[in-house]
Amino acid sequence: MAHKAGFVNIIGNPNVGKSTLMNAFVGERLSIITSKAQTTRHRILGIVNGDDFQVILSDTPGIIKPAYELQESMMSFVKSAFEDADVLLYLVELGEKELKDEAFFRKITNATIPVLLLINKIDVGDEQKLAEALALWQEKVPNAEIFAISALKNFGVAEVFTRIIDLLPESPPFYPKDQLTDKPERFFVNETIREKILVHYKKEIPYSVEIVTEEFFEEDHIIRMRSVIMVERETQKGIIIGHKGAPLKRVGTEARKDLEKFFGKQVHLELYVKVNKNWRSDARQLRRFGYNNS
User: Fold this and answer.
1) Of 111, 17, 104, 109, whose CA–CA distance to 66 is shortest?
2) Whether residue 141 sits in one domain with residue 112
3) Domain that holds residue 112
4) 193 and 90, same structural domain?
5) Bridge partners of 27?
6) Which of 6, 67, 266, 290 maximizes the CB count within 10 A of its CB?
7) Which class for 244: exposed (0-12), middle (13-18), buried (19 or more C-beta within 10 A)?
8) β 266-275/53-59 pair status
């Protein structure tokens, strides 16, 4: 049997469950998940291998209208998802009626590659709501095949994955068969810490934070890490550290536990907080943090 391989890119508005779907396909927790918008900042690849296929899944940031330089960079990841896709997954939430960016929507409806439109979170609706959604999206995106799924409950995910494999072109694998993602280990350390900050801090704080892992030493039975939480202002530094350092300690403890599961060994994590003024609007700093602003 011929080998198939290709890029499958997942796009949609914020909070529609793209990261949950990606993790369900891959079977590993590659993308962080919170209830806050703009949780995903980068384009993350997850690679699923079979004997005769390789599916390269791409989780992109939710589509928004950019308000500052960081968000412009985030949207550049979404634009690139249209350029190399063999199959496009357009994920919508049950009850959702439109994509936030009209230009992106036109790209979907005019796509020459296969488009699978996935109506997610059907576990929170009823049959009438689903029937209305199916009729709406069939009219809006006539070039798409439509699937009803619940990524969280893993309902309908296997059927979508089977259809993806059907649609992939014949090709040798693009990545080694034992590779799970394109991101280095430090990236997942940074994202795990950032997820805990998204969960435990309110208002602007999580969006003003970037993580840099400066040290990552792996020994036989333990990995020693030193990570810095970058904020934009001194007041934010004080909020992150919190009363007697307890909030920062909670972030470190929860991140360490998740990282021990991810890496399968003991982790020693040191956290520090530094001020890096206006990093979200500084093109040089954004490049340093891995955001492509071209």
Assistant:
1) 104
2) yes
3) 4-167
4) no
5) none
6) 6
7) exposed
8) unpaired
Tokens found for residue 72 = 């412009």
Asked if 207 and 67 touch (Cβ cutoff 8 Å), the reply is no
Q: Name the residue among 191, 161, 163 with its Cα closest to residue 44.
A: 191
Mean pLDDT over the full length of the chain: 81
Token pair, residue 202, equals 């309110």
pLDDT for 187-245, tens place per residue?
Answer: 888 888 988 888 888 877 777 888 888 898 988 889 999 999 998 889 889 999 989 99
- Give the chain's end-to-end CA distance (angstroms, integer): 40
Give residue-wise pLDDT tens across range 71-110: 555 555 556 666 778 999 988 888 888 776 677 778 888 8
Q: In what order do the strands lie in the sheet with 144-148?
A: 44-50, 53-59, 4-11, 87-93, 115-120, 144-148
Q: What is the enclosing helix (H) or strand (E) of 271?
A: strand 266-275
